[in-house]
Amino acid sequence: MNRSFDAIIVGAGQAGPSLAGRLTAAGMNVAIVERHWFGGTCVNTGCMPTKTLVASARVAHQVQRAAEYGVNVPAGVTIDFPRAMARAHTVTMNSRGNIERWLGGMDRLTVLRGHARFESADTLRVNDETISAPRVFLNVGGRAAVPAMPGVDDITYLTNTSILQLDTLPRHLAVIGGSYIGLEFAQIFRRLGSEVTVVEKQSRLIAREDEDVSVTIRQILEAEGIHVRTDAECIAFAKHPDGATVKVDCTSGAPEIVASHVLLAVGRRPNTDDLGLDKAGVHTDKRGDIVVDDTLATNVPGIWAMGDCNGRGAFTHTAYNDYEIIAANLLDKDNRKVSSRIVGYALYIDPPLGRIGLTETQARASGKRLMISKRPMTRVGRAVERGETQGFMKIIADADTHRMLGAAILGISGDEAIHGVLDLMNADQPYETLKWAVPIHPTVSELLPTLVGDLQPI
Ligand SMILES: Cc1cc2nc3c(=O)[nH]c(=O)nc-3n(C[C@H](O)[C@H](O)[C@H](O)COP(=O)(O)OP(=O)(O)OC[C@H]3O[C@@H](n4cnc5c(N)ncnc54)[C@H](O)[C@@H]3O)c2cc1C
Ligand SMILES: NC(=O)c1ccc[n+]([C@@H]2O[C@H](COP(=O)([O-])OP(=O)(O)OC[C@H]3O[C@@H](n4cnc5c(N)ncnc54)[C@H](O)[C@@H]3O)[C@@H](O)[C@H]2O)c1
Asked: What residue stretches are annotated with the Pyridine nucleotide-disulphide oxidoreductase dimerisation domain (predicted)?
């Protein structure tokens, strides 16, 4: 049997459901196909459960420090790990259920459960039927990459999906990969009581950030007892009665890590290998990302790709913005482009890193004349009052255009305060605009005008 629609959306992640809402409201008959959990990665195995666990871990950490604040907590405080995990699961299930109910009640939308695969450019097979439409929107996301590391197939390893199903706390968690996923889980599990070792093959953690950011993050994590092994060029795994051994150094006989659990957090790969893209003639690049133009159209007319699968962003907010761009261009006769997007993001260790625009390293390499300003969180009243003074704020501006080029706020509320810079950059205003703002005291954001006032040429 073949059914025809005005549009087909594959994947109910961060972009697909909202696009379904706009297309059906515009009068189109739409099919949305989801093979697994509604809400995709963010809701089920990404942002929502991890940030819920970050909250549990923060409470655990703050309780340990209670006496510093003049609050005496009786000795013998324990972590109820299953309860912390259940709390994360509840947040996920509520969100997943809301999306399912929203889509289930949407007029002109047909919800299909199953794996979609192209048979031609306008026809896909789902279970035992085919569906056709002149417009197909791909929102298939990605999954944890499992590279062919020596011994990886001999051990039981965890990914961001399976680690969320644990019901007992790991005795010793070895985290392979010291970037977003690895560092967030490392701190969560350390604060909940595991011994944790982060193994990173590059010479520093979260190496795409500036060195001062990497070094400070390492200090923050090591201060909590997380072991960090960088320059791990010879990672190899083997089975061990207590779990697995992780060989890190190339030198033979060097001490190995004996871990009860191993988490692989070494990047993600797009879910594009099982979509039948060749049948539709859609091009991918060598990573497997779907190649799109500035409006997110693929090389095949009538097929678009949104979110993690197009390689143009790897965050929930960029996936959602992809939907906004497509809807604006198709339905609102607007002219929106991905290249106009100024991307901010946060790394949710505690305190978080809020980031936007160029790093200092990238700015220096650009050849522009630069102004830089940096301030430690020890000189931010809000941080001092809260007793959380780790980190720093840094802004980089163009000395000729007076536009902000980038910022990093590693410290309490860094993920929120960064939006002051993000808004300024989106408004395309000179940094002096911030200098004369009158922010609220005591906040982290109130230091942005001070930072601007301290900008020095380099
Ligand atoms: C541990 C972790 C923490 C994260 N934390 C954050 C964070 O704090 N902030 C942030 O911005 N981002 C975070 N991210 C990234 C964020 O989750 C992703 O960028 C976002 O979910 C991408 O959304 P998407 O819509 O592109 O894809 P997804 O959310 O992955 O959705 C894709 C959907 O398509 C379905 N699908 C795939 N193939 C098919 C097919 N052939 N047929 C039918 N259905 C199919 C999948 O089942 C899935 O439901 C995190 C990611 C991880 C792994
Ligand atoms: N807070 C957030 O917004 C958030 C949180 C989690 C994930 N995410 C998204 O998920 C994506 C994937 O995150 P990720 O941390 O898995 O990947 P990543 O690509 O950011 O980092 C992978 C890390 O693993 C290291 N690595 C790669 N191969 C290795 C090996 N063989 N041995 C040891 N180390 C190795 C890399 O050097 C790198 O540091 C990110 O791009 C991000 O957009 C976002």
From this structure: 346-450
Which ligand has an atom closest to residue 9 CA? 1
The set of protein residues with a Cβ atom below 6 angstroms from ligand 2 is: 147, 149, 176-182, 184, 199-202, 207, 232, 235, 265-268, 314-315, 345-348
CA distance 6 to 240: 55
Q: What are the sequence ranges of the domains in the chain?
A: 2-143+269-340, 152-266, 351-457
Angle at which helices 81-104 and 16-25 pack, to 10 degrees? 20
CA dist 126 → 104, 110, 131, 140, 183 (Å)? 18, 13, 7, 14, 38
ipTM of the complex: 0.97
Would the CB of 449 count as within 6 Å of ligand 1?
A: no
| CATH architecture observed for domain 2-143+269-340 | 3-Layer(bba) Sandwich (3.50)
- CATH no. for 351-457: 3.30.390.30
Q: Which atom of ligand 2 is nearest to the CA of 145?
A: 16
pTM: 0.98
- Equal fold, 2-143+269-340 vs 351-457: no
Residue 402 annotated to the active site: no
- Is 180 a known ligand-binding residue? yes
What's the CA gap between 231 and 362, in Å, rounded?
22
Per residue in 26-53, pLDDT tens? 999 999 999 999 999 999 999 999 999 9
